[in-house]
Structures are given as C-alpha cells and as structure tokens.
Amino acid sequence: MDYLTGQSSWFVLVLDNLAQIIFREFSAMNGVKKGKSRKRKSSEGAEKPAGGSVNDALEVLQWILSPVSVEDFQKSYWEQKSLYVKRNNPLYFKKITSLKQIDEILRNESVLFTENIDITSYTNGERKTLNGTGRATATNVWESYNEGCSVRFLNPQIFFKEIHLMDATLQEYFECMVGSNMYLTPPNSQGFAPHYDDIEAFILQIEGKKRWRLYEPRTPEEYLPRVSSRNFTQEEAGEPFMDVVLEPGDLLYFPRGTIHQAHTVQDHHSLHITISTYQKYSWADFLERVVPAALEIAIQSDPEFRRGLPLGLASYTGVTHSDIKCEKREEFRQKSKEFFAKLFKYAPMDDAVDQMQKNFQHDALPPVLSDSEKRRTVTSRPNKFRDNGALVPRGKIFTINTRFRMLRKNIFRIVMEEESVRLYYHVNNSKVYHEYEPVFLEVDSEVAPVAEKLIHEYPRFLSASEMNIPDVSAKDCLAMMTSLWENELLMTEEEPQSV
Fold first, then answer.
1. Which of 126, 249, 337, 438 could, after both became Cys, cross-link 92 (CB 3.0–4.6 A)?
2. From CA 198, how far away is CA 258, in angstroms rounded?
3. Rounded CA separation 108/106 (Å)
4. How far apart are CA 328 and CA 310, in angstroms?
5. Which of 27, 91, 81 is closest to 59 using CA atoms?
C-alpha cells in the first residue's frame, strides 16, 4: 500500500497461512497427530515454514469435527445443512469443563446474575428467566437447579480457561468473533422454547444426555437470518427433520436459521457448550458498508451521477405505472442498470473489509500465550527502578539481526482512517465483550510498510536487516519493530537478551 497517498494496493487474503505451534492442551485432548511441516514461498522467493495461529485453529476445528474433515465440512455442511457426529467416546470433550469445575467457580469466583449467568425455566410453553441480584452463589444456583431450572453461562470464557483458549484459537480461522455459551440442564427438563439463532452453532456435549430436535426454516426469509427469532410454539415449529440424543463426546452443528429445541432425557442431566460464530459477517453486512461508500465516491467523481432525472419520469414510473410497458420506462430501467454496473467501479472493497476487521479487533478475545511465547514478548521483561523510584532505562535489547513475527496472524489490522495509518489490535482486550473501547496505534506512513511486510510474511520471523523496504532503513525498521514488540504485538524468535 502507498500510505502517503492512501491508495490501496493489497487485500489481505483469508487463510493465507497455516500454523506450526499447536497448543499442548488441545494436542493432549484430541490425539490428532501433527503432519510434517510444509514450506511455502515468501514474496521474496525464499522458503518459509507453514505455521502459526491459523493452523492452530484448524487443528482445534478438526478435533471438534473429527472424523469429518474441515474441507468436507466447509464443502458439504457449512451454512447448508446440519451435521451430527456420534463418537461413543464420553471423554472426548471432558477436559473442557465439568460439573465439579462449575461448582468450584461458583464457590470461588464472583459470578453475577444476568451479567454472567442466567437461571431459566420452560414450562407449559412459557420461558422464564428467574435471576436473582448480585452474585450467583453456589447455594442459590444449585437450589434452582434442583428445582428443575436450567443454568446458562453467558460468557464462560471469563471463568473457564479452556473455553477462552478454544474460542481465541478458533477466531484466527474464522476471522470474526467466536463466542460460547454453556448450558447445564437438570434431568427431565427444557430450558428454551423452539427458536432459531443468527449464528453458526457447534454443540459440544460434555456430560449427560440431551435430545435435540431440528426444524427447517419456515420461509425463505428465515434462511441464514441476520437476527435471532422470537420463541415459537410447537405448532409453528412443525415436524423435525432431525431428532437425536447427544451423549458425552457427541457433536451437533447447524446453520443459522435452523429452528431447534432441546431437553434432557429421563434420569440424565446435560452439560453442553455452544460455540457460535459468523454473527453479522455476511455478504449483506459487507454490502451495507461498501454500496453507500461507492455511491458517495461515484457522486463526487462522476458528473453522470449528478445529472438530472428525465423529464416526465413520474408519468411512467411508480406503483401506478408498474404494470404498463412503454419505451420510456424500458429506457429508464436500462439506464438504471448501467448506473448499478458503473457503481462497482467506485466500490472501496478493501476499505469496507478493513472496517469490518476493525470491528473484529474490538470483538476479539485476547490471545492465550504459551510459556514459550510469553518469554519472547515484552511481558518477560520486568521494569527496574532506582532507589529514588526512577525507572531504569531498558538499555539496548535488539539489533538489526533480531528476528520478529506477529503474535498472531490477525493480532492487528492496518486501517487508513482520518488521513492517518492506524493499527487496531486486540491483544489487551478484556474477556468481557466490549468492556473496553477499541484501541489502536497511529504510525508514521513512512514506516507503515514494516507492519505490512510482517503481515505478508507471517508466520516467518524477520529481522530489520531482512526487510528490504525501499526508502526505509534497517535502523528505522528496527525502531518500528521494537515499538510493535513493546506494545505486545510481536514476539521474537529467540528469548531477548540485553546486548
């Protein structure tokens, strides 16, 4: 990109890179063997290993879907039809969480009604939320549970580190927000009425059994909806196309718009996690951004868009004349089509995607770092203070031969905004959704290509001496990379040592 003129010359490709570091927790959990490391050509023609955060996400998604491959899932099921995987392996998802862990968290953490947890019931076709106020203590929650109420954790990633790890990893693959809810239902009960959601749903059965009934969207308007539905009656839902009982280790996926309901079976409780993604991440959301922007640019740039409408237009258009065929009406229709076709020329596609990815930086969970990664980031370098309280300067840590890479493939996004270059990032986001305002670094346009190069070359580690960016010295490259490292956006290939 020419950051001095603001003209976009690149468009970050979705899933351009694969990964090399697999989180130990999931490797132990899923038993998936990692294949041989592959290499691909960099923009300079040099070999670089495939790897990084996207491959971590692929490994986790493959573990969730197994034995169905991610490729087959995307080709045959994603946004198309439901998938039920029967595993006969009750321990498959067991390490994610358990009743025992839930009890420990309720006893030891500040879990709040409405903010973190809901107590619900569904009887005689009516759903009720029966939350108390303040902290949801173990005593209060288990009392409601014993009375037949369901327990829903609204943001379990705050309290369950395995769920945080899973969601933060998967968001690198989907490149949009990945969230989770956790549902605990007592025997012989149901927590929710039939309804559909505006998310792609992955149901991971942890404990117990639950019967799920899935129903087709009732109308074309309900297929892949952008908002969730109201509660339906049983009559409105109709007849299910799928009726299955999930047992521990089983998986159920269904696209947004699939009407569903679930209830426990006799003498069995149920604990499951719903992983959700692709909320408000459709062509419609993209076009809502790009079409008005294209029209604004076209109006400013092309006088044809500013010409007056034909005289007499009201005499052959509108509802009154919609059934009348005439030459002038057809001419108007053809001219309108020409304008729509011409509008594409002005569509700022890159800018629209950048704005959507800027929102993702606000939505995203902070990454979960391994111990090895922590030792190669700024968090491994505690500050030192003199006896009088003055901060001791760090001194020189890096040279032009120190090699860096981005902490995650999507850890920041370059956005041209308000005549400046900004790097929006999520490394310090809260685990609470939108608890903080969006954050960004404003960088000089002259050194912004350093950040761009790091994106293009990920997951390869690069030193300032390897950057080879026209008009940017190795010294300036190192200064930019050091700044990104100090803001927790990069890690080094080796543990940093003072030089």
1. 249
2. 9
3. 6
4. 9
5. 27
**Which tokens belong to 465?**
């001496």
Tell me whether strands 490-492 and 403-406 are parallel, antiparallel or unpaired.
antiparallel
b (16+ CB within 10 A) / e for 305-322 = eeeeeeeeeeebbeeeee
pLDDT digits (tens, 9 = 90+) for 246-262: 999 999 999 999 999 99
- SS3 state of residue 66: coil
CB 467 within 8 A of CB 474: yes
| Spatial CA neighbour of 35 closest among 53, 47, 18, 48 | 18
Rounded to an integer, what distance in angstroms lies between the CA atom of residue 146 and that of residue 156? Answer: 21
pTM of the model: 0.88
CB 414 within 8 A of CB 451: yes
Q: How far apart are CA 216 and CA 218, in angstroms?
A: 6
Nearest of 233, 347, 339 to residue 286 by alpha carbon: 347
User: What confidence category does residue 474 fall into, taking pLDDT thresholds of 50, 70 and 90?
Assistant: very high
* One-letter amino acid for residue 474 of the chain: A
CB count, 10 Å around CB of 252?
24
- Per-residue pLDDT of 58-76, as tens digits, reads 999 999 999 999 999 999 9
CB 83: neighbour CB atoms within 10 A?
19
Positive or negative, the Cα torsion across 106, 157, 69, 406? negative
Structure tokens that stand for 272 in this block: 């499951």
Q: Which helix or strand (DSSP H or E) is residue 263 part of?
A: strand 259-264
Q: Which of 298, 309, 493 lies closest to 402, judged by CA?
A: 493
Partner residues linked to 423 by β-bridges: 414, 441
CA distance 499 to 273: 48
| 16, 4 contact by CB (below 8 A) | no
Q: Which two tokens stand for residue 47?
A: 């070999």
